[in-house]
Amino acid sequence: MRLLRIGPAGEERPCAVGPDEVVRDLSAWVPDWAGEQLDPEALSGTARRLARKAATLPAVDLTAERVGPPVRPGGHLMTIGLNYRRHAAEAGMELPAEPIVATKAPSATAGPYDDLILPPGGDRTDWEVELAVVIGRRAQYLSGPADSLSYVAGYCTANDISERSALLERGGQWVKGKSFESFGPLGPLLVTPDEAGDTRDMRLTCRVNGRLMQDAGTADMVFDVPYLVWYLSQFFVLLPGDVVLTGSPAGIALGRPGTPYLREGDVVEAEVAGLGAQRQRCVAARRGLTARRSAGTGHAEPSVPGESSVPGGPSVLSSAIAVPTKDGGQ
Asked: 99 exposed, middle or buried (CB, 10 Å; 0-12, 13-18, 19+)?
């Protein structure tokens, strides 16, 4: 299945792409893509039901509503450092003997077309396209990598946005540079393992203002997805909805001549092939802003949490699925 969540921030509805390639609203069947609804067996049951009864569910007009993160925020956001060989070479560092594990605050989670809010005083904001793994059932002390994929709900595109000045120059741990609001866009789709294909053979790309900055395959990973899920289970209780960002390939601003960090007005597009493309416009944060919820149209005043100033943001998704009209047709 291909899952997504539609609606204003904090009010998203669980949806899925039906066998007719139309996005359907599943809120009559499931409360959200979270908790026990992410269990692989539960998802299999929902997929069978969708195959039979998709036409009975409301169609969703992606041009009229915001696309949120495909899994309900609140779980762990774990990140893996130096997990691509060429990225380690770019950084001038040796390959790690074990996965380097860091975290992002759950409040950094954003939708795939929400604005990327540049923090006050931050002048070294960097992109990092990544394959994200969403946990589907409780996992602890797994016996080996071969068992780990049965605990996975699916995969999605992620961008592990980092403010390098906070990450490298402010002491302490990396979490400070990775946890600013909007620094964890996920989606648009959460794709179950049966549809996603081999995670050892996925292409990741990132463009800034149309210029290709990152282009690599997951074959360059140091530690693959099964190993990472097994490894993390030795230290953490992994719960449904936890997200593992599996590392970024070479091509980040930090490793480029002139370090072309993100600036207000820049547009970032990140994609993992088969999982959908993201697109964010960089806007400046405004101190003292009182957060308000999106009206749901995806065309909102810039730098408001949960909203987007990218015209036609959801159109990035439309190449992979059909966008129904308001009357439910195509």
From this structure: buried
